[in-house]
Every structure is written in structure tokens, then in C-alpha cells.
Amino acid sequence: MTIPAIVMAGSRPGPDSLLTGSGVSTKALLPIAGRPMLAHVVGALRASPLVGRITILAQNSAELAAEASLEGFADLYFADSGQGISSSLAAALPEGDAPLLVTTADNVLLTPAMIADFLVGAEDSDVAVAMVEHNVLLASYPESKRTWLKFRGGWWSGANLFRLRGRRVLPLLDFWGRIERDRKKGLKIIAAFGPALLLAVVLRLITIHQGVARAGQRFGLTAKVVPMSAGEACIDADKPADIALIETIMAGRG
Description:
The protein is built from 10 helices and 10 strands.
């Protein structure tokens, strides 16, 4: 059985400095190594035997559907997104308990091996989040600057891969919709789950696995972190320095 995938390819509110002088109107179409970001991500998903239908969500999905580099990909669909990530995902969830794989258009270093690594680790969970531990990234890419969540036993950075198990995750998505504006502020996100969890994190009393599990329990969900073995899994295209590093990594892959 394959899992359907959603690629979040919309634009954040406000100007994006990456687009200045690029000639494109949205980040998903920004070229990296000669192809739009989105084409790299769709190519990795389509090359995975574990992934089925792929849906691209964006405010102006028709613009992305007209992109020539996406022609020829099978089982590829486009839909207009809502006003935020959470509401867009809520509208895209399959019925029942069917799982859904979610990633982003700037996750351009994604590979079929990473997808397999994540999905195997995500089994038997309602919500799974891919993350990379600090030492795993720095062992290969010490120059990469990421945002780190600091827990007992390690620092972690998100890898833009999520597995959601059907509509049971709707309460969590509704909650996320109220706090997603603070997505880059780790402690503010943790504080939203309650003072007990915040204190445990600040004092480094719990691991990230325990913290995520506790956060899921608040919504009656089994939540887990899937540690990624490839350091580059958490390198997305947020800054010019990221793009330069991504193109170097891609060149090394041949």
C-alpha cells in the first residue's frame, strides 16, 4: 500500500527576500540547481515506491500547475490552500484513519531513502515528526545554521516531514492554527502545551521523545519523533546560505 502525500507550497505573509530579483512570484518556483524547488520535491516523492497520489497545496495552485518542469509526473494534483497551514491540512485529510505524508516545497534535499527512513519510523503513531539531532547534522555540515530545540540528551531541528493519521488529528491541527505564527520560537510553542511541559523542557528533565509524546497525549494521540539518519534532512531553503549549501550537496550527489 502507498501513502498519499501533500506538498505545502504556499507563500507566507509578507515579502520574501529570497525572491528579490529572481523573476518568480512564489518560493516554490525559485530555481535551485537549475530546477524549481517544487520539482525537486515532487521528483523525490514520485521516485519513492511508498508514495501514491501527490497533491500540491498553494494559494494560487493554477500557477504551479502550469509549471513545465512538473509535466509528466503521474498522479499529481493541485488544490488551492486555505489561510494557514493547519486549515489547509485539515481540508486535505483523508477520511477515517488513513495516514497522510506531509512535506514542504522547500524540502529540496528530500530523497526516496529519507522517505523510507521516516515512514518506517513513523509506524504505529497518530502523529510523527521527522527531526535531526544536532551532532548528526554537524558531523557532515558544520556550516549549516538551524533552529534548535534543546532537550535532555540532544538538540533537535525539524526535517519538514510529517505523518498524520486521518481525521483524528483535527483537534491538534486546530490548536496548531492558533500558535503557528510562533513556529520559529521553540519555547513559545512548548509553553502553549502547558507550564508543566515547559518547565520540564527548560530544566532539561525530559528527552524530545518524551516531550512530543506528552504533547500528543493532550489530544489523545500517539505522537513520536522519528530521528533521521541523514543530516541534510533538516536543511531546507530558507536563506541564501542554505541555497548555496543545498546546491553544493546536490552537486556531490551527481
